[in-house]
Amino acid sequence: MGLIDSHAHLTFPELRDRLDEIFTRCDDGGIDRIITLGIDLDDARSAVRLARLHPDRVHAAGAFHPHEAEKVTDDLLTAMAELWDDHAVVALGEMGLDYHHDFAAQDTQRSIFARQLELAAPRSKPLIIHCREAFVDTVPMLVEHGFEGRPVVFHCFTGSAAEALRLQEHGWRISFTGVVTFPKSTELQQIARSYPHEALMIETDSPYLSPVPVRGKQPNEPAHLVHTARFLADLRGVSYEELAQQTVRNTMRFFEL
Ligand SMILES: [Zn+2]
Fold this sequence. Notes:
Blueprint: E1 3-8, H1 13-16, H2 19-29, E2 31-38, H3 41-53, E3 58-62, H4 74-84, E4 89-98, H5 106-120, E5 127-132, H6 135-144, E6 152-154, H7 161-169, E7 173-174, H8 186-194, H9 225-236, H10 240-255
Parallel strand pairs: 1-2, 2-3, 3-4, 4-5, 5-6, 6-7
Zinc ion (ZN) binds at residues 7, 9, 37, 94, 205.
């Protein structure tokens, strides 16, 4: 049973020139599919091109990442929304707010996030949310724009158990990266241990966040997803096979692959 990496950045310079070997290692390691995310218009177009080139392996998603918020114009937003209707695009994201890095002013981030939510609302594709130390604004903005109960995933979730529960109450879900394998991630491991079977999804967020035991190895790549899957299977007391099947089923359903 192969896995699906629900969040990677194959178009980033660390990975894009080595895709042949990266895909070979996916085949060897049992990674069947990858959702690759573009973080601005050019990158999202590259993601779509890659998905068209490898239709049985790669799916695309795209949006303006909060780090890119300062560069976004009306024309760029319109073009992004047009790209969202391409059938290679399975999800709208990652979009959201990042108050940890603060690469863009917070009010600019909020306004670009709001604009994207307005454009996303009439479309039926799932949302991939990037939220870093910005829970307090991200959640109400999603509710305001009518996303209550709609398919929304907070990717690379690193918040508290209370926050994870609140997201569940809104009908949204979280997904787990290699961060869950880090020894200090005790609260996240507690969340992952009891997270509902039917919502569990995993991702690498490569080229970042290599899981234990390849932590520190740069760049991270989709083949490393097996380490996170194995860790979660042990943590949850299920077989690797069962965890693989469940996460694949959940991911296929969520993104309508
Ligand atoms: Zn990402």
